[in-house]
Write a structure and sequence with these properties.
The complex is a heterodimer of chains A (627) and B (219). Chain A has 627 residues and is mainly alpha-helical. Chain A contains 20 helices and 3 strands. The longest helix of chain A has 36 residues. Helix content of chain B is 73%, strand content 2%. The longest helix of chain B has 31 residues. The chains are: A mainly alpha (627), B mainly alpha (219). At the A-B interface, α7, α8, α9 and α19 of A face β1, α2 and α6 of B.
């Protein structure tokens, strides 16, 4: 339309850095926001883990007991799943998925910013309980009736409200990525030419779309019961506590794959790149991804085998659970076959990929063990379970996040991380991880219960717990090495080449640093591993489908921040009306009204974005080389 | 693969098919721009997610509809004529929103706004009936806090009611913002996504009418 303004570079770059990041809708900057926030909470969650392991180092220890231990335990789980694993994966999805499919941004840049700020304020709400003296302490699963205010105070209200906000952000992210991947692929980028990380992001986003709403419903009911006199989980009012378990695990099991599938996608990018070979069994990988997601919705009762739903229900869900091992196994063998006969380069990113295969297989094997209900009665609520899910969540998700950090750091920040420090980080973390958690399998089998803040001497638990704690501190040292590496990288000039790993996929065809419009001219994709194909054909850059033209960009805006802030005010108002004073109800209602007002402004003000002039784009493009 | 590359600009295979100009001219005004297409897809995805959300509330309601330690039972509460009137009003408002979109596609701005105002009025009438109904129930002792059935009922039906309220606010904002604006590829997707939302809210009501009221009357 004629009203769309053309804005020159000088005009766009006037903003201060803080204001720029508060108002940005650029997926690359939102990726930075997700990364730093996720990393911050990773340190918080890691510190909480160390506190717990310190308490458990010796029998009858009094370092961290009772309510404080319960709070740290609850927040460790909640933080690591909702505030670390998913946001860090979103960081990489934001950073590279649009580049990999040849898009200029996500389908909804505004909504993308909104997602981030909802996560930001949701995380804040969850931690405000530490200041008011009532942090969440009912376990990250929020089981009823333990999570009601009679038993856990109002801590779990912070949990419910915080999750509700960040969960809404996650849902919007899921919708955004599905719409982006379906609608904004560059010409020639058919579904079966998409890099595996794009595929797994797509499938994980679909999982988000269908898994988060049951959690939202469950959290609403939890909030009603805690703050508004609801009776859904109150047995005297006719309520049913098992309902929560169903709602939570209908969400909770797909959630496992929401954080695992993008991790698989990362390894499916890293392994071919450093093996100098095409990914083995591409279509089998895609089908396996879809199958895992499909079966992922049919297994939630395996978290509830001991509830007593009966042998038929348990049997059906056990069978469905065991089936998931098949597509997962296909993936493992495909990664191995990709490396077989390849020209392997052992970079830091590749170290994590190799560590992942060994570790994750062990987590998978214990998973199949627990999928059998009679055996599960033995494992339920012991450290065997703790060991299992740390093998899968750290073995897959955290290793993948580290791998992706080394792999995509030059694309995200224009610098390379130090490879030697990366390998030191790997060895400390990898050995520390196995020290911490391998022994916990045995502790579980010997009868040590999870979620309890101490144990008696003379049961043979002393030495294994001490080993476990020492391992946890080794992991901590590994993370410190990563921190040093990050700091050192920022003391260098941003001088990484656009394609430092001799990459195969489209993100390595963009310039360094990536311009805000990503692609000056949209590329034509002619096969899987689009960039590698062109390299093999002797071309220096991707073919393009258009001449230089003015590029339409979305306006940056403060409204997503404001909308999330006002919702956070409402959430706190509703909690505080029960916790402190009933007149906080007005703060809650006021927050809702302000949110609606912000939405009204968003609707009423025309926001058609602006154009970057083609002469400016041409000038920028001439500065560097393409590939 | 062919290596006739250095920077081809023509002969583009778009997802295996030659890009046809007809497909571009055929699309309606809300789908002319890429943003319009994104909005359509994105909103369908949102509706998919909302369906699961409502399905969860339906499941909770079905699990708890006989859990009534105190307070009246559904058979004593529900009055079908009133609910039937509400249903008829809401379904009619779906029809009027279709008329609005059809007029929008023919670029008849005045007719579109007329039908939208009618949609708003019908939606508002539904809301008045629902408030009257809830008020009636509360006086009979069926409240949000009276039993698990009560909480589940108001969670489900009230959540739908909140969707109606949000839809009315949304429509009002659209009417205000477009009062002096013409139908353009920028404004049309806004009206179109609203009508998708409104149909979805109506569809959910059909399920509520069946599962809550009809099944409640049968027992």
């Amino acid at each position: 339309m004629a009203t769309v303004a053309v804005r020159a570079e000088s005009e766009r770059k006037k903003k201060s850095m803080l204001w720029d990041y508060l108002t940005t809708v650029d997926h690359k900057k939102i990726a930075h926001l997700y990364f730093w926030t996720g990393l911050f909470y990773f340190l918080v969650g890691g510190l909480e883990a160390l506190l717990m392991r310190t308490q458990l180092a010796f029998p009858l220890n009094t370092f961290l007991t009772g309510k404080a231990y319960n709070e740290v335990l609850t927040m460790h789980g909640t933080t690591m799943i909702f505030l670390v694993a998913m946001p860090l994966l979103f960081a990489f999805m934001n950073a590279v998925v649009p580049l990999m499919i040849g898009a200029r941004d996500l389908a909804f840049p505004y909504v993308n910013a909104l997602s981030y700020w909802l996560y930001f304020f949701g995380a804040l709400i969850m931690h405000i309980g530490f200041l008011t003296g009532d942090a969440p302490q009912g376990g990250w699963t929020g089981y009823m009736p333990l999570a009601l205010s009679e038993y856990s105070g109002f801590g779990m209200s912070y949990y419910a409200m915080g999750l509700q906000l960040s969960g809404l952000g996650t849902l919007l992210t899921g919708i955004n990525f599905v719409a982006t991947i379906v609608n904004l692929r560059a010409p020639g980028m058919t579904y079966m030419r998409m890099p595996l990380f794009v595929w797994t992001s797509l499938v994980a986003s679909i999982l988000i779309m269908f898994a988060f709403p049951p959690l939202t419903a469950g959290l609403f009911l939890m909030i009603y019961d805690q703050l508004f006199g609801g009776q859904v989980f109150n047995v005297t009012g006719g309520g049913n506590v098992i309902l929560w378990q169903h709602l939570f695990w209908i969400f909770g099991h797909p959630e496992v794959y929401i954080v695992a599938l993008p991790a698989f996608g990362i390894f499916s990018e890293v392994i071919p790149t450093f093996s100098k070979k095409r990914l083995f069994g591409y279509s089998a990988m895609v089908i396996a991804t879809a199958l895992i997601a499909f079966f992922g919705f049919m297994v939630w009762v395996h978290h509830m085998f001991t509830v007593g739903l009966g042998p038929l229900a348990n049997g059906i869900f056990a069978a469905a659970t065991v089936i998931i091992a098949v597509p997962t196994g296909i993936k493992i063998f495909n990664w191995l076959a990709t490396m077989w006969g390849g020209r392997l380069h052992f970079s830091a990113a590749m170290y994590w990929a190799l560590g992942f295969i060994a570790t994750f297989v062990m987590g998978g094997v214990t998973g199949v063990m627990m999928a059998l209900p009679p055996a599960d009665y033995q494992y339920q609520d012991t450290y065997f379970i703790v060991a299992h899910f740390h093998y899968t969540l750290i073995g897959a998700t955290v290793f993948a996040i580290f791998s992706a950090t080394y792999y995509w750091w030059p694309k995200m920040f224009g610098r390379l991380l130090n490879e030697t420090l990366g390998k030191i980080h790997f060895w400390f973390f990898f050995i520390g991880f196995h020290m911490t958690f391998f022994i916990q399998h045995l502790l579980g089998l010997w009868g040590m219960q999870r979620r309890i803040f101490t144990y008696l001497p003379g049961q043979g638990f002393e030495l294994p717990n001490l080993i476990s704690t020492m391992g946890a501190y080794m992991m901590g040292i590994g993370v410190i090495v990563l921190g040093i590496n990050i700091v050192l990288s920022f003391r260098k000039k941003p001088d990484a080449s656009p394609d430092p790993w001799d990459g195969r996929t489209l993100e390595w065809a963009t310039k360094a640093p990536v311009p805000e419009y990503n692609f000056a001219r949209l590329p034509l994709i002619r096969g899987i591993d689009a960039l590698w194909l062109e390299k093999m054909a002797g071309h220096k850059e991707m073919p393009v489908i258009e001449d230089y033209h003015d590029i339409h960009m979305p306006n940056s805006t403060i409204l997503p921040f404001m909308m999330s802030l006002t919702l956070a005010i409402a959430a706190l108002g509703f909690i505080w009306k029960e916790e402190f004073n009933h007149s906080f109800l007005y703060m809650g209602i006021g927050g809702i009204v302000l949110t609606l007002l912000v939405m009204f402004f968003r609707s009423v003000i025309d926001d058609e974005g602006y154009h970057i002039h083609k002469e400016e784009i041409k000038r920028e493009e001439m500065k560097g080389v393409g590939v | 693969m062919a290596t006739t590359h250095p920077n081809v600009l023509s002969e583009i295979d778009v997802h295996g098919q030659k890009r046809s100009m007809e497909a571009v001219t055929e699309s309606t005004i809300e789908l002319v721009t890429q943003e319009g297409k994104n909005k359509q897809l994105g909103f369908w995805l949102f509706i998919a997610a909302e369906s699961v959300l409502f399905a969860s509330f339906f499941a909770v309601y079905l699990a708890l509809r006989h859990s009534i330690p105190n307070g009246p039972k559904p058979q004593e509460l529900f009055e079908l004529p009133l609910v039937f009137a509400a249903t008829a009003i809401l379904l009619t408002s779906s029809f009027t929103s279709v008329m609005a979109v059809m007029n929008m596609r023919q670029l008849k701005s005045g007719a579109m706004k007329g039908w939208l105002v009618l949609t708003w009025l019908l939606g508002f009438s539904f809301l008045v009936l629902e408030i009257y109904e809830f008020n009636h129930y509360v006086h009979m002792g069926h409240t949000f806090t009276s039993s698990a059935f009560g909480t589940a009922f108001y969670s489900l039906v009230g959540f739908h009611g909140a969707h109606v309220v949000f839809g009315l606010l949304w429509l009002m904002a659209l009417l205000i913002r477009n009062a002096r604006r013409e139908i353009t590829p920028y404004t049309a997707p806004k009206v179109y996504t609203f009508s998708l939302y409104w149909h979805f809210v109506d569809l959910v009501w059909v399920f509520i009418f069946t599962i809550v009221y009809l099944m409640g009357k049968v027992g």
